[in-house]
């Protein structure tokens, strides 16, 4: 009876919190920022690599240049122009204490676009982050502010839309503001996993359980576990009416009718968004592209407003009886899926033990090899890691050090760690100025200049993998999309950038001796013809200077006619 009353109290408490959360935000204050019905390609809180999705991705019917309008009265308070991330973005601050953001845009509305262009030419810099005062660009609800696009870190045409608390800059789930997006489909469950929590979720890792659908319910065979201390995780997606796979909004875990854990994704700040790595099975995401969400707290997961602090989800099995488990998943519209199963402790397996290189959550750790050292902060890991660090000979012809193996790219780190590497031969001062650190984390690489600290190069990274010092004497370059001296009749000039090691970190173009605005689109540099180079203006000389991570600078000259 006590358990029933406790369960009843928790049920009403959770639902009261949910109802309160959905009612404390102004309803129907903000309108749809597009002039077509709102359809989601991604929702707030969806799993992304190293971050939550922080807004709604609104479909634009696979088209660009749709009208984007302001969701409510306010003023343009900020714009950003960046290669990755948001691409071209507009921030509108509203008098009710919230700010809306519209990203991946192609073009701002004329008055704003002209202002940004003037600033770019004044600064001789394409990338911008401009703050405006309230009186500069006031806007009214429904006013055109931009054209939609596919700029920045976008993988296809859409509009990214956020609502933030203006004071705290926390991103809030836009669905809390009353947008009407029909959805009658409950979340779909496709996997269940258990973890031995006597050491870490990473070792030995996930144990998969086959899930079966029985009518309106999901179930599994009895889960036989070999540890008295376990946790569970769920693989599921929210299938909205539009057919896209969305993230799970709310989950609850009960054992023997007692609530063990729950989470809801209502608000997250950009300072905290990387904590997603403590909410998911990161190795499964990186290695197998599987989104599996923990129904428990990891020791180093400190995300606010995500789960109750008194419910950690750790299941302690004190006997070998069969215990009932229920998992409840809900989308924002209340569509609900349930998984019911049973768990039983069988013969207990050996426990993984710590070593002298174990890195634990909330503890600093320094680990060394003969020629390298890594310094991890107390916030570095979400769960315990028996950290393996070693050296091996590099096969890279530009290497001037051994390759340092930093455990595994399948284990996350939360913040920057410091890495020091000693070269394997004596370098001249000139060579030292051309040394970079290459971090290879499997799916991509990162190149940093680093700084010399005694006889070692010191750099910072926030992913694990293999690191090597390279002597970069290569030159970055661009390749024109036209033949030398050709007549250009199209609307753009396009240059493709290339760097042997790392990336082009600086780019400057001058047309007939004057700075010319090229936008960076992934690896390309694009100039859209305007009054700076009108039709029938004759022959032109374009001088392009590029710089790579090592500081190597290359200047190229091209000619064309217009």
UniProtKB/TrEMBL annotation:
One family name in Pfam for this protein: Peptidase_M23
Matching CDD domains: M23_peptidase
Signal peptide positions (record): 1-21
Record-annotated M23ase beta-sheet core domain positions: 52-120, 138-167
Keywords (A to Z) from UniProt: Signal
GO MF: metalloendopeptidase activity
InterPro entries reported for this sequence: Cell_wall_metabolism_enzyme, Dup_hybrid_motif, M23ase_b-sheet_dom
Protein name as it appears in the record: M23 family metallopeptidase
